[in-house]
Amino acid sequence: MFYNRQKIYLFGVVILLILGCEEKVVCPKKPFEVTVYTSEGQPIDGAFIEGGFDWEFFRVQTDSEGIAILPGHALGERAVIYKNNYFPQVVRSLSPTQYILTPTPQQFELIGNVAGTAIRFDSGTLLTIEYGGGYHMYSYNDQEITEVAFAQLPITVKKINLYGDTLWFSTHEDGIYVYTLQNPLQPQQLFHLDISGYLGPFAVKDTILGVGYPYGPGPLRIFSYTTDGQYKELSVIEKYFVKEMTFISNYLILIGNNESLPTVFDLNDPLNPVLVYNGLEWEYKSAFLFGDHLILVPKYGYAIGRVDYKLLNLSDPANPASTGGFSADSWLIEVVDDSSAAGHYYFHSQSISVLSGSISDSFYTIAIISESALGGFGGGAPPYFIIGNQLWKLEDR
Fold first, then answer.
1. Is residue 33 part of a domain?
2. CA-CA to 208 of 20 to 30 Å: which in 29, 44, 311, 358?
């Protein structure tokens, strides 16, 4: 009897070896090979293939022959293939095959490293500020960037406004500081407004200062101030959610969520602010300014990779007027000038795209930084752009 059972067991083992694993037994998947080419058939060295979540995450780079060996668990998974100056490709189900990346119409060339976000971006001269209070002055050309001055501001920098040569910045709990940059080599403090509380966005017009609340709906406070650091609260407007604000003439423009795109107060009498416009834009989630235009960002884009933006003309701030809109293949961060913009590329939000076009028609991506964009977009003066804490120059291929 025992002998027969042993034969049956051995027979079963043989069957398993022939047929493979049972459903209850996990068979590890073997690593597999993919190849990445250009649309002209040239292998791409250094392209990243990335996907998965948590312990299943994978990120592999191609070699000089365009080949990457992926772990077995990546088989059948969704992934993105990307490299600087190529359009990222989203793969819905990875398999051991060939993939193609299309080069962008133009390309970025690295000039050098930059610390902070641009507050002034002139031809050959760049001023930046870091969150930790580091102030930098750089000189640059198409070959290199060189730091020529540094100053450590006394506190963490939160929100920044530059009015001519006067730098204003808010802090977490220490009010607002004001510096002159008439000599950009040596910024000098003019005065400090020791306004209490956590400060959000702010805007300045003559001797009037509007300050928002940083963490959701909260009080909008209106102050008068003097250049010796004195200030007086003139009025308080309750419960407004403000991401950004600015003055146009005597009107304070608030940019918030879809219940405030925008909200406009007449501050001709700052003791008695008058609400003159409240934009309820349920299909939009945020907005940003470009000149006298407010560009409204929709909640959703289209699967084909298109985002449709709405334009409001604020030249008459009390009566914002819709002037149509435009489309782009990215989620825009900023319209840099009349013919260029920057954003997160639609099919790969980690990539920063620079786009060409206009708000009267459309914008389309002409170059992409996808490998080292972690620091985000830091400002631009075409053909130069700060992306991922590095200065890049846009060039023809």
1. yes
2. 311
